Amino acid sequence: MARRLDIAPTIRNRVRELRLARGWTQQELADAVGVSRQSINSVERERYVPSLPLALTFARVFRCATDDIFVLEKKR
Predict the structure, then answer these.
(1) Helix (H, G, I), strand (E, B) or coil at 4
(2) Cys-Cys with 28: which of 3, 24, 55, 60 at CB 3.0–4.6 Å?
(3) Which CATH number fits the domain 11-64, given the four candidates 1.10.260.40, 3.30.1450.10, 3.40.30.10, 3.90.226.10?
């Protein structure tokens, strides 16, 4: 079994939590930020870290700071 080398920091997000709090589907959020539903799913499952422009778009759509959505976790 190969060891996974974590070079990049881990970024956690609250996209799913914020989307559900507003009663939106993944497709509705995707339409609001201009990406596919599959991209929203990948972001929510933390398989994809959005670009800075997309992160800023999430902040605009959710009407909160990017720090309220995305958290950079420190390595242990």
Answers:
(1) coil
(2) 24
(3) 1.10.260.40
Strand 10-13 to 70-73 pairing? antiparallel
Q: pLDDT tens-digit profile of 25-49? A: 999 999 999 999 999 999 999 999 9
Pair of tokens at residue 4 = 């996974």
Q: How many other β-carbons are positioned within 10 Å of the β-carbon of residue 24?
A: 17
Residue the block writes with tokens 């939106």: 24
Residue 2 has pLDDT above 80, yes or no: no
Phi-psi region of 4 (alpha: psi -120 to 50; beta: other; left: phi over 0): beta
Entry field: residues in the chain: 76
The full DSSP string for 43-60 is: HHTTS-PPPHHHHHHHHH
